[in-house]
Amino acid sequence: MAGKSIKTNSKFANGILGFFMNAMLILFSLSCIFPLIWMFYSSLKTKREFYADVTGLPENPTFQNFIDLLSNPNNNLLSAMLNSVRTTFLSVVLIVICGYVLGYILSRINFKGNRVIYIMLLMGMLIPVHALLVPVYIVYKDLNLSNQWFTLIIPYVAFGLPIAVFLVEGYIKAIPIELEEAAAIDGSSFSKTLFSIILPVSRPILVTIAIIQTFACWNEFSFALILIKDSALQTVPPALTMFKGQFSSDFPKTMAALLITMSPIVVLYFTFSKQIIKGMVAGAVKG
Amino acid sequence: MPESIQPKKIVIFGYMLVPMTLFIFAVFVPLVAAGVFSFFEWKGGPNKIFIGLENYITLINDEIFWTAFGNNIFLVVACIIGQIGLAFVFSLMIYSRLVKFKSIHRTFGFFPSTVSAVAVGFIWRMVFDYKNGVINWFLTAIGQEDLTRVWLNDEKIIMFVVAIPLIWQYIGYYMIIILSAMSSVSQEIFEVAELDGANGIQRAIYIIFPLIKNTLLVCLTLCIAGNMKAFDNIYVMTKGGPGYSSNVMAMYAYNISFDKSNNLGYGSAISVGIFVLSLLVIGGSQLLINRATRSKEV
After folding, report:
1. pTM (2 decimals)?
2. Helices (H), A43-63
């Protein structure tokens, strides 16, 4: 009898515990997703309707905010999107290619500078990026490298490189060397082995790198802020801060702008969330 | 070794030349440049005057800089407790049999960490806004009007206010890392623990914690390094204000060099200061962690 009452007791305790834990997690998940939903339906309101009721649903949904933003030539939202797409795309491609080649060489080939380069890349990862903002500004300005369409690709590739190299290096080490030996017997040259035999095998890790760097480059703010003064060349994050001055009191319009600039990331994330989460975690733990 | 496996030096050199040149130019040249410029009085114009260590003496006595450093440390501590602590608790909950919608919690929880810090800063500015913010609206709605305040303009609480978005953004990120570590812990260990009558909390502390210790240390390092370079959120939310009360080191270097003055010489000295202090804090915490974990094992 005593045993039975303990059992029902623990069942009751489990019920309370379960309810409590579910409630906590649901609250947390809602807090993560609610801003997106709130911004979406609020961006369909007029300024007046929004200020009358900050959290209410729109009564007469209108796309006017979006139309205003996209048709107004004074704000460079669309050009900022294009700049971000170009910068992100080129940076990611270069990081993947350079990271792959360097990572392969470092893991497979013995040469004098091997350790030196390894340590240099490691230092590159440890150096706090924000300690370099001021000197980067000075150096790029002196060499006339700031305010160009390719300016941001330089730091993005350089600072994305170490993690890419280390991920590739670790991955290549797990590939049996017999693969290359067999290729050598078949008469494959070094470059051919590198690009047509090992590259396809390394695809998963290259996809991981591309995922991590796509988000990193699209969201990068500080270099973009100091290196690009020409508003026609600005990427999305600094363009948004310019925007703050223009419409600081118009929340629905600000939300519409945030949604437009977040849309590629949101679509990408919710389409491939499993792979993206896996890739980002792999990068964080191994890096 | 055949040449296709150990190719000639010139081939390796050719492959490495471009990426390594780019890397050295972008990472090491600015580092050296900061060191050099920090010895000059230079306001961005053509005149550079060598002044030796004067910038560094100013820096050591610069209270604003040390307030900023203190704020960085505050963020580090707040985020270790808020991000890793909550992430650990949430991970344990998600692992429990009693919890539903596990994959939804993962997907939604991780989402904020993929959004730019600028966008997150904007969202929270609107949440904290005095006139139209959700927080003050909510406080008014539940009849606690005297609790409403100008959240972003109150020196006493501003660091807590700017820490909230930072913490919130990355809980899910650490949660996923911890969950992936927990899933590599053998399921049998959990079951044995249950048979022995270990309740949830005991189980967490005595069994799971030591088994995923290494992952937690990785999180700790990420968290420290991440918050020493806090900048984007602060730039959007307060620009370091009111006064200097929410200033962080990177924000100060930015203000001195670009925004409030054009003092690139002193800005370079601050950069060197950020570099040294960040490495000290990260390196120091590593040493402490190593010592703490070693003494426990003995």
Report:
1. 0.88
2. 47-52
